[in-house]
Amino acid sequence: MKLKIKIAAATLGIGLLAVGSGMVTAATYYGYDTRVPAVSDYESSNKTKISSGSAYNVVNYVEGNRGIVSWIENTGGSNVTPKVSYTTTGTKTMTYYYPSSNYVGKLVHLNISTAVGNYTATGTRGSWTPN
Asked: What pTM does this model have?
């Protein structure tokens, strides 16, 4: 019994140490619900990238399964990930240009535009993380 308590206490201590040291970080997701203009794009507000991981766009709705594209930009308007095209829901991964560590601590935002061939404003919603 004492051994189980010691193991549990050690496990808890290591877990708290990992969280306190930043070894364990949970991604924060930011929601959006927008109508993407046919000839322009939607830009989210700027968020700080906290890790060297990829950005994710969890798409919950795409109006009429029309083609849209998402990517991440820096505050200067330069693309820091390739564009990802899609017509359906699901998680879209946007991998930062190498080295991704260059973007840690920097402000970035999500861009969404209609895809080539989609000339209709398109509703979409979901959540994204710069990770």
From this structure: 0.80
